[in-house]
Amino acid sequence: FNFVEIVPPICREFARLAQQKDMMLLYGEIASTDPGKRAELAKQVAHKFVDERVSGIMFQPLEHIENAERLNREILAIFDAERIPVVLVDCDYVRYPESGDYDVVGIDNVAASLRLVEHLVAAGARKIHFFRRPHCSNVILNRMRGVALGTTLAGLSWGPECVLTCELDDEKAIARHLKGRNRPDAIVCGFDAMALKVASVAASLGIDVPRRLMIAGFDDSRDAQTAKPPLTTIHQPCEAIAEAAFRRLQARILEPGRPPEDILLPPPLVVRGSTSS
């Protein structure tokens, strides 16, 4: 697993379910921030699991690495060579609209973004933009697709100028976008940490949230709940994701030849002060 805030509750639920079934659960955490080191660690963990002769793998595809799809293919090939069943958690390893060869369990990110856009438009937004990091995963791309679709359906303008791609700590790029000629009145960020960074930059520029700028994120992190103002976000049903992935892997172990499925759970929208005064 990549180290993000949704992972600990998912892993806790995995552990609970494994204990119920009297099964052993092994973890492989890829916590390094260095892209090259993360890639190497991921391969080492994959080979370790093969050596341990595990019965199945729940794998969260790696992201924020150049050529991440190729790396994920290499890792999955290690498991495939040993005929170890795999369920992907959170997202697929291939880019939309290509379909992968593994079960995928996560949330319906496109539908979630559509709900966010509907909320923002109802709150008065007319220029909705999307912020993301470079080399992002299918999860983030699907969130962006949902925002693009939602704004288009609402009759609002959408184009490349509505997307900012920058690193989380690039405050100058964020500030330029917030002060630019095409500045937005609402921003959906690919994840909560970026939304909170945008809120911080907006405060430093004297931009009132939410009166002049509405901000929303994804994941419903602890920081989102305690921020000032608290962040509107999409809640991740971590326990439900874990249970669905666990059950799917059990079924995959029993029936290796069954067709792959996408299990996309409906996540709730949590409206807070960053979009509602």
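[next item in queue]
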Amino acid sequence: MAGYLVTGGCGFIGRHLTAALLECGHSVTVLDDLSSGNPASLPPAARLEKGCVTDLDRLAELAEATDGVFHLAAIASIAAVEANRDRAHAVNAGGAANAVAAATRSHVPLVLISSAAVYGDTGPGAVSETHPCAPLSAYGADKLEGERHALDAAASGLSATIVRPFNVYGPGQDAGSPYAGVISRFIAAALAGTPLRVDGDGSQSRDFIFIDDLIRLLSAAMERRQPGVLVVNGCTGTATSVAALAQEIGRICGGDIRIEPGPGKSGGVQCSLGNPDRAEDLFGFRAEIPLQDGLQRTVAWQRGSAFQ
């Protein structure tokens, strides 16, 4: 069994990853500044270290005592990024640079969580990892800068896999958080009997990947130990329009679900769809949870948590 460091382990993805690693018999140290994560949701067996990834010395010290680093810590809220651009850049780009430096120093493998936001608006086709990146947001630009730090460190012997998740959803995602995705917000509205607001005509589409599938990919990526840096999409290869998503969530939740139009948004990504072939070629990974099943599991969790 191994010991791993998970930065941002109190966040949505981090909590699921930590639990999965512990269930496999590994030990896990979580580094989190608790600015958005909930420490109460961490499994008791995890060791929590309060601190920020902007502290290279602390990060390097923790990495040296582990067998691998999963770097998830980030400020992903658009509002938070815009409100304090310097802070967001220091955490998102600078934190990635520090994780790369720490893993390189300690000669341990790194799984670096990037984002599909690095691609920008690529049109309706499925985008592969070789597609030129043109991020539309400061968050996406910071994530791309973090990737470049890892690629530059390949010459120093770093073994790293950069994972670009698309739209991740599942149980445990707080619908009231500024980090919440459209699925958790739609479910919360449907369960509360309030209208589901669909901006524009609802034709904008996303590649929704269930949290359990993404965790399997991250775990598989950590098993890679060869020097060098790889980039893989964390996706399903299936696009779903926001309008169709709202209809399906309404059907699962039952009752008289109303869908109302919201204002159209300009300048955003119309279609975000990933090509999953490289992850399958490298790790034998394919997403297994169909959207309908994932939504049913997420609705069941949110319905239960609403009455706790």
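[queue empty]
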